[in-house]
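Lab notebook, entry 187. We have the chain sequence and a SMILES string for coenzyme A, and the next step in the workflow is to get a structural model of the bound complex before anyone spends time on docking refinements. Request logged below.

Task: model protein plus coenzyme A, output structure tokens.
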Amino acid sequence: MSLTFSIDSLHSDAFDPFAAYLADHVADNGRDGMPLFQPLARAESRFDGERARTFRDALDVPMSEPGWRRAWVARHLADGRIIGHIDLRARAEAHTTHRCILGMGVDRARRGTGVGAALLAHARDWATSQTALDWIDLQVLSSNDPAIRLYQRSGFIDTGHLVDLFRIEGRSMGFRSMALRLVRDGH
Ligand SMILES: CC(C)(COP(=O)(O)OP(=O)(O)OC[C@H]1O[C@@H](n2cnc3c(N)ncnc32)[C@H](O)[C@@H]1OP(=O)(O)O)[C@@H](O)C(=O)NCCC(=O)NCCS
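Result returned:
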């Protein structure tokens, strides 16, 4: 089957269409009774202002410095529309430069077609090419079964589970931590 999308690096000077895509994606969080995929209340489920600026500015932070982030977008080949994204960012704690944190999402109309798996493989390959990195970490709401299945299929293992971490608008939710060890030739 031929691919209907490409995966490209996201650059800070082409950020506005991405910000519009992500704002639309994040607005789904808990909408009309849909499950939450981020630990945010409905009114907080936005991607704009300071949150968007922080994301964009981190794309230009060198990998050797704290606060870096790199992101990739999946684009529909026919019209260039963004249909998914993935990003890796530095951990906030000191002495953790060998690890990074993953975030991702796929447009609601394109889920279940392999976009998520392709984005994950792309980010994993990039991280593997960065010799400073040995691990990709992530956290996922315990109720987010589609995401957990994708991460497990892609080789992530469970590293912890905090039940009842969040109570958001009357709902109790746990947070699962998962990690992928990057494998390079020879070790
Ligand atoms: C989690 C998420 C990123 C997965 O992305 P996706 O593109 O749907 O992932 P994939 O298509 O690779 O895999 C999803 C399912 O489709 C199936 N699939 C993949 N390619 C397929 C194909 N060509 N034909 C049929 N099914 C396919 C997979 O087997 C998988 O099935 P399963 O969930 O029953 O195990 C997406 O659901 C999403 O954006 N959710 C909301 C945001 C979110 O949860 N982000 C993560 C926060 S931690």
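Notes for the group: The pocket of coenzyme A is lined by residues 37, 104-106, 111-117, 140, 144, 146-147, 149-150 (CB under 6 Å). Worth checking against the assay data. The chain has one domain: 5-181.
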